[in-house]
Structures are given as structure tokens and as C-alpha cells.
């Protein structure tokens, strides 16, 4: 590990940072108001866990400005201070201390700046193997058995010999990092993708990750990045800017990965990915709609709840039914969209007339309190088969069933439907909204649909699933205007 970060440029500083004080103990760490200054700093990415971390509250804010001892900090933050000193930096950003906990206005304001905080950090210190803020960065390593094998060089005419060391691995680099406690955390995804440089303190060793590659302490170098970071490489300036279609494909990859991660607070579903949404809006100029993009509609509405196992949040409204953010559990953000955008010729398409988003706070990419979308398209009643389709993947996985066949007026299967959430009793019949109709490259007809049901609001509908048909089921239907909440 380098003892100092070399030649990093000053950049805009966050609202607050921890001045880590001096190693000799003559000056304790203290919270510092940056006041629009520029400089270099490290940021910490870690799990709070179940312990109560040392935080900045409204009542303790003045005390934090005066200073505190290292012994007062949880072990992970304390280790991060030590690492920051070794790297030759003076400032460290830690959410528990640099955001005023319990102050909703401060949280709204600061949580909307995650792309700036991690994007401008000289380096991100990732407590990758730690489940709790008291675990620390320097976890006890699992020491694999190592054997040495003497080798004679065959690459030259000399008789030089060397030694190869063979040791047991916990897994591939991506497996070790991606399956770590930290990278199961929802907030961490954008922290990792946006950060320019990361030092991972993993279970087996340290890893360096940047916009170019990932390198392990044992000398292993992985040139390709993890999928989310590769999709949205914010730090690299390329000769050719990616197209809007490429950025949208990356966004859907990100959302699919994000949906599999854990959040301690359900209402964080949109705020915890808002930094990435902000970056995409700046890059494309697209309009953000509670997890979707206006310029990606209507196809962006065709996401799927993976295997129909998702559960729509019902205890407290979090997002409109047409957004994947309304679902707890994994989603396939591309879903049926992947087929719709590849249609060779579009014969009919729903038109998005308007969208209304009411925000909960100051973050335009964060929490929403109400939203609706108005669409003009063809609708028709349909029904499903009584049993799900069965897929046999060779027996060792078992049968996977999540799609119901859609039946036409004659009772013949003409497509499939995936419902958004695991209702014990799914509707036998339902309304279908035609999103688009067209031919595949092989000439087959495809109709992609949203499955909708009446909502509690008069004349409004809610999404309950998505599907496709291989028959022109809507030929005799007129277009109508509907509002989905």
C-alpha cells in the first residue's frame, strides 16, 4: 500500500469534514466547516451495523467543532483516521459526523450531494469486510495455506530460477468484493461507482480499485471493472461520449444490481441511488421521474419484479406503482423493455402525455411523496391461465415458475404476464395497456403491455405487472387516456 497519495488535485470540499488532528496527540480531531474551500480529503464507505455510532447531533454540533478524542470513535472510523494519516491527507468525510443526524433539513441537503462527496474525494476508504462500525477496517485475516514451488525460467537462455507461491483463494476478486458485507448495502453501490479511487480492506487482503482496473495486495491485477462501475465510468474522459441508449442500458444494469441490496430504512430507496441519478441527468439532460427517465418512456415502464417475488410497499407509500422503487426485492429493470427496444418496426406505441412528481425535500432525485403519469394508449381486458408456466433447468435447480400464460378470447395462450408482487391470489382477469406493438427481426409480432388495475383514486389506475403477447390483441381497440399512480 502506498504511504502517500501522489499528485492529487485540489477539488471542492464538502460542507463539513473531519480534521484528523495530529498523530502525536497534540491536536485532537475536530469537525471543520469547509466554507466553500478547495482541497484534498478521503471519504469513508462503511456499514453502521447494529451499534450506535459516534454521531453529530443538533445538540452536540458545537462540541464536535471543538474536538473529540480518537477513543470516542467507533473502531472503523478510528481506523479510517489512521489510514488517512498514512496516506498523507488531513481531512476525512464520515456520514455519521459530517451530516447532522436527526436534522431532516441537513440530511436532505447533504444526502443530495453524494455524487460530489465521493466523486471529489481523493480516495475512498472502504471497510469492505466489516459488518459493523465497531469491526474496524483491519479485520482478522483468514491466512490461506501457501506452498512454494521452485521454477526454472524458460523465457531466456539463462539458468535463472525463481519461486512461484500457490495459495488457497477465498474466490475471485469480484466474488470477494461483490459478496462482502459492505457491498450488500444499498447506499454503498453509488459510493463505489462514483469514487475515483478506492482502497478495499477485505477479508483476505487489501484491494485497489480505480477507473481503470482493480489490483490486489498479492499482485493480482484485474483489468476489467465490476459491472456497475464499468457501466458508468464517470471518472474517465473518453473521445466519444456514450449515446443516450448506452447510458440508459447502464442505468438499468445499475438498478437491477441495486434492487438486490439491503437498506435499513425503506424510505431511502430513491435517496440511496440519487447520486448516480444526478450524474446521469447532468450527462444526458434527461428528466428524472422517481427512478425512471421521461426520455426512456414508455419502454422504461416494462421492468419486471424478478420471478414475481417482489413485494410492493404497502405500509407507507414510497413510490408510484409504475416505478421499480415501489417494490421491495429484486427487479429486472430491463425486463420486457429489452425486447421492446429491439423491435425491427414499431406499428403502435403508447404516448406519455404528462408526469407529475412531488418531492419530499430538496433533493430532486430523492424521496417523493406523490407521483402520477398520464398515458394515451389502447387497453383491453385479458385473462390468464390458472397455473404458472414451468421451466426445467436440468433438475439440479428445480422448476422455476413465475410467469402466467395470457389467454386470448378463444382460450389459447398468446403470451405471458409477470405480476409485480407475490399476492396469494392473483387476479384471474385484468386490464392490459398496450405499450408498443411491432415486429421482431424475424418477422414475429410482439405486443408489450402493462397490467393495470383500478386504484383507490377515482379514474386512476395502478400497475400490477407487465407482459407480452404474440397476437394483435388490440386491433379493434380505440386509444384512451389513463392516469397511473
Q: Can you offer a commentary on this structure?
A:
This protein folds into 2 domains: 11-140 and 171-231, no CATH class; 276-484, no CATH class. The protein is built from 11 helices and 30 strands. The model is unreliable at 393-400 (pLDDT under 50). It has a 9-stranded mixed sheet with strand order 3-2-6-5-7-10-11-12-13, sandwiched between helices. Strands 20, 21, 22, 25, 26, 27, 28, 29 and 30 form a 9-stranded mixed sheet that branches. Strands 1-4 form a two-stranded antiparallel sheet. The protein is globular, with a radius of gyration of 26 Å. Helix 5 (114-120) packs across helix 7. The longest helix is centred in the middle third of the chain and has 15 residues, at 244-258. The chain is an alpha+beta fold.
Radius of gyration: 26 Å
Main β-sheet, spatial strand arrangement: 3-2-6-5-7-10-11-12-13
Global shape: globular
The chain-level mean pLDDT equals: 87
Assembly classification = single chain
Strand content: 25-35%
Question: What's the short version?
Answer:
This protein is α+β, with helices and mostly antiparallel strands and 485 residues long.
Which helices and strands occur, and which strands form pairs?
Elements: E1 11-12, E2 16-19, E3 30-33, E4 38-39, E5 42-45, H1 61-66, H2 75-86, E6 91-93, H3 95-98, H4 104-111, H5 114-120, E7 123-126, E8 146-152, E9 161-167, H6 173-178, H7 186-194, E10 197-201, E11 206-210, E12 214-216, E13 221-222, H8 227-231, H9 244-258, H10 274-284, E14 288-289, E15 292-293, E16 304-305, E17 311-312, E18 327-328, E19 331-332, H11 337-340, E20 345-349, E21 351-359, E22 368-384, E23 391-392, E24 399-400, E25 404-407, E26 413-419, E27 429-439, E28 445-454, E29 460-469, E30 479-484
Parallel strand pairs: 5-6, 5-7, 7-10, 29-30
Antiparallel strand pairs: 1-4, 2-3, 2-6, 8-9, 10-11, 11-12, 12-13, 14-15, 16-19, 17-18, 20-27, 21-22, 22-25, 22-27, 22-30, 23-24, 25-26, 26-29, 27-28, 28-29
Helix pairs in contact: 5-7
